[in-house]
Amino acid sequence: MKFFVDTAETDQIAELNALGMVDGVTTNPSLILKSGRDILEVTKEIAEMVDGPVSAEVVALNADEMIAEGRKLAAIAGNIAVKVPLTWDGLKACKVLSGEGHMVNVTLCFSANQALLAAKAGATFISPFIGRLDDINLDGMELIADIRTIYDNYGFETQILAASIRTVNHAFQAAHIGADVMTAPPAVIKKMAEHPLTDQGLKTFMADWEKTGQKIL
Ligand code: G3P
């Protein structure tokens, strides 16, 4: 499973990147706002830091403007994935931009039918939002499983990018179902390293080591 980091905070990307945890980065208008940075500037900086796809989102609502924005974002670097919303206009933009050879990430996906349309329009990535479905008492993970089944039924190459990952359990379940990629905030990725039995075991080892009176260095 590929790990994308869902942030535009370059210091946090750098920390995870140094550990080999970053296969790509996703951003959106809310994350750009949070970073306080200029979209073109920060996207360029991130694209230079990581080798994998860096998603940058268009903000136009009609296809022609989305395409123009997408071309401008794609020109920033060779590893930009243009992010378009899953609307009819977004699908039109996806078809044109992917036809030009750009990676396209179709975002704000909340149903398997939407995911099917995105695949037919040539999306490189489809981003189903798990957490936001859970927020309204629907099952985000069921959507990932449904998309996996449908894509596998027909051999679609569009990669399932599990998004809106809020918990370590989301990360585990997405991996278990076979999402190709997950994008998660840095804090969730770091939390995946935690287990209470690890902490407890380490505490015991440290106490016993102290009693040996030995040193390694
Ligand atoms: O990648 C999409 C993600 O940023 C949305 O997450 O937590 O705002 O629903 P969230």
Structure description:
- The chain is an alpha/beta fold and 217 residues long.
- It has one domain (2-212): Aldolase class I (TIM Barrel).
- Helix content is 52%, strand content 17%.
- It has helices spanning 10-17, 29-35, 39-49, 63-74, 88-99, 112-120, 130-135, 140-154, 168-177, 186-191, 196-212, and strands at 2-6, 24-26, 54-57, 80-85, 103-109, 125-128, 159-162, 181-184.
- Strands 1-2-3-4-5-6-7-8 form an eight-stranded parallel barrel, surrounded by six helices.
- Helix 1 runs parallel beside helix 3 and helix 8 (140-154) runs parallel beside helix 9 (168-177).
- The two termini are 37 Å apart.
- It binds SN-glycerol-3-phosphate.
List the helices and strands and how they pair.
Elements (H helix, E strand, L loop, with lengths): L1 E5 L3 H8 L6 E3 L2 H7 L3 H11 L4 E4 L5 H12 L5 E6 L2 H12 L3 E7 L2 H9 L4 E4 L1 H6 L4 H15 L4 E4 L5 H10 L3 E4 L1 H6 L4 H17 L5
Parallel strand pairs: 1-2, 1-8, 2-3, 3-4, 4-5, 5-6, 6-7, 7-8
Bound molecules: SN-glycerol-3-phosphate.
Strand content: 15-25%
Overall geometry comes to globular
Uncertain stretches = none
Count of individual domains? 1
Q: H/E series, N to C? A: EHEHHEHEHEHEHHEHEHH
Structural class: alpha/beta
For the largest beta sheet, what order do the strands appear in spatially?
1-2-3-4-5-6-7-8
- CATH homologous superfamily assignment: Aldolase class I
Ligand names: SN-glycerol-3-phosphate
Q: Bin the helical content.
A: 40-55%
Q: What is the CATH top level name? A: Alpha Beta
Tally of helical runs: 11
If you consult CATH, what is the topology?
A: TIM Barrel
User: What is the CATH architecture assignment?
Assistant: Alpha-Beta Barrel
Which sheet architecture does the biggest sheet show? 8 strands, parallel, barrel
